[in-house]
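Write out this protein's structure.
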Amino acid sequence: MGVEGKDKVKALEAGAVALSGQLGKTVQRLRKAYNLSLSELSEQSGVAKSIISQIERNETNPTLATIWRLAQALDVSIERVLQAAEDEPFIEKTSKGDTPNLVSDDGRCRLAIIGWIKTVEWLQWYDFQADPGGVLESEPHQRGSVECLSVLEGELEVEVAGVIETARSGDTLRYRCDRPHTIRNRTALPAHATMVCMLKAAVMD
């Protein structure tokens, strides 16, 4: 199961907000490194002083054209403007209440989206829990996608194209998820696992 529909929109919006905040810090750092005032950077870039100030304070989401102008004025690539400073420590925390959750159709399987929002287009990972009898049926992901299910507690069964395999605590199953696939908990006990979905992992025949 990937992030789709409204959940995907929310994920991308959250990623845009995070990127905007990172951008503001980087622009300010580079501007100060070149010993430029807001007015001087505005004059060199053609971007209004008030807009640059808002970008640095993370109060606006600039257009690509604005980012390009600032990058040109700061004599760096757009990639460098968008990336965090290499010497800055990176640590990000998401509280339990802010973690998006998905529920299977039968209501017995729950997936907490614990992966990094920025990788959602190609790498997704979840905390997966299944009550007794729980079934998670998923449509095919894009061609070449692979899913890894590592069981932490209990026992889970995975079926892909009629092939069935069972995993117990400590086991990991890797399987193609570019075709219909199903995860089941056939036991009388809850099951807990981590699930990682690698989209376009490889071109597989």
